[in-house]
Amino acid sequence: MEQPDHSFRAALRRGVGGRCPRCGKGALFAGFLAVAPRCTHCDLDFSFADSADGPAFFVMAFSGFVVVAAALAVEALYQPPYWLHALLWVPLMLATTLLPLRPAKGLLIAVQFHYKAAEGQPARGDGP
Ligand SMILES: [Zn+2]
């Protein structure tokens, strides 16, 4: 029987592909960005998965850099009319934000799973 791959690389690959970060077989998402309650294959509870605004931040930073750099370059070189700018950059903005958003969310959830990252908890024991 084949041993499951618990490497960081495998977790990243599963996350980007929208698969369960533990088994790589069940679906991580129940919609475009909604995380499924649990894995349909290994029954991993996905309630730990809280990527918050992380994916949106990284995608916006990437998209902003690409679109603004392209718009500035085209304006400096050709000075096209504004309607042409809108025609060029609106689809590019949509493509560079919507397409990578789901893989980015899966990636961050996979990293969270791999490193067992969780919200901070109060220390137990005798205390200070
Ligand atoms: Zn699974």
Provide the succession of SSEs: HHH
- State Rg: 20 Å
Kindly report how far apart the N and C termini lie: 49 Å
Helix-residue proportion: 40-55%
Number of strands: 0
Q: How much beta, percentage-wise?
A: under 5%
The outline comes out as elongated
Q: Could you list the spans in which at least 5 consecutive residues all have pLDDT below 50?
A: none
Number of helices: 3
Major sheet description: none
Return the average pLDDT rounded to an integer. 91
Briefly characterize the structure.
The protein has one domain (8-114). Helix content is 52%, strand content 0%.
Could you describe the 3D structure shown?
The chain has 128 residues and is an all-alpha fold. It has one domain. Helices cover 52% and strands 0% of the residues. The chain contains 3 helices and no strands. α1 crosses α3 and α2 packs antiparallel against α3. Zinc ion binds next to loops. Zinc ion (ZN) binds next to loops.
